[in-house]
Design goal:
Helix content: 10-25%
Shape: elongated
Strand order of the largest sheet: 1-3-2-6-5-4
Number of domains: 2
Number of strands: 13
CATH architecture of the largest domain: Beta Barrel
Number of helices: 3
CATH superfamily of the largest domain: Ribosomal Protein L25, Chain P
Distance between the termini: 22 Å
Mean pLDDT: 87
Order of helices and strands: EHEEHEEEEHEEEEEE
CATH class of the largest domain: Mainly Beta
Length: about 200
């Protein structure tokens, strides 16, 4: 994925956003440059690439391979307000969080169990050119009471990658169906709604 950008022109961030431009910074240990890019172009690239895939960012003709390091969001409008891009170095390993894509229907689910997804990404160290978009985990053989762990992802990752998470951490499990304690009670109660805050990227 390729995004065209330019060095930051004078003007407030609010004015830039009104003009459809997104303020951003591209940096590494040798670079720190304020830039602007098209809001829609970033949105398209970010939806496709996320935070674990390389983007070709072209700033006034100079191309950088970058990762999206941080996105500041307008919580009300759910629109990006500012983006931090990290410019990678070809022969320098990076620590990245790779999304886990769960595929298949677990045997235990077909028997009435529930699939409990406990982790949605795995942390690895790898050279930029080997960063995968995602890692696939097939749960088809998992029965009730069984689980898959980080170690079960290793074979699906590039051989050049080093897993940084504990290999014994559970990724998915199939648990028995929940049975209500007050089954048969004539008194109906409202279900509790639990909301969790979105996790931040490292």
């Amino acid at each position: 994925m390729r995004i065209e950008a330019e060095k930051r022109a004078p003007g407030t961030a609010a004015q830039l956003r009104r003009d459809g431009k997104l303020p951003a910074v591209v940096y590494n240990k040798d670079l720190n440059e304020s830039i602007t890019l098209d809001m829609r172009a970033f949105d398209k690239a970010f939806r496709a690439q996320g935070t674990s895939s390389l983007i070709d960012l072209v700033v006034d003709g100079t191309e950088h391979s970058v990762l999206v390091k941080q996105v500041q969001m307008d919580k009300r409008r759910r629109e990006p307000m500012h983006v931090d891009f990290f410019a990678v170095t070809a022969n320098e390993a990076l620590e990245v969080h790779v999304p886990i894509e769960v595929v298949g229907t677990a045997a235990g689910v077909r028997e009435g169990g529930l699939l409990d997804v406990q982790r949605r990404e795995v942390k690895i160290s790898v050279l930029p050119r080997f960063i995968p978009n995602h890692v696939t985990l097939d749960v088809s053989a998992v029965k009730v009471g069984e689980s898959l762990h980080v170690r079960d992802l290793v074979a699906a990752l590039p051989k050049e990658a080093t897993v940084l998470d504990d290999l014994d951490l559970s990724v998915v499990a199939v648990v028995p169906p929940r049975v209500s304690d007050d089954a048969g009670s004539s008194t109906a109660t409202e279900p509790e709604v639990i909301r969790s805050a979105a996790e931040e990227n490292d």
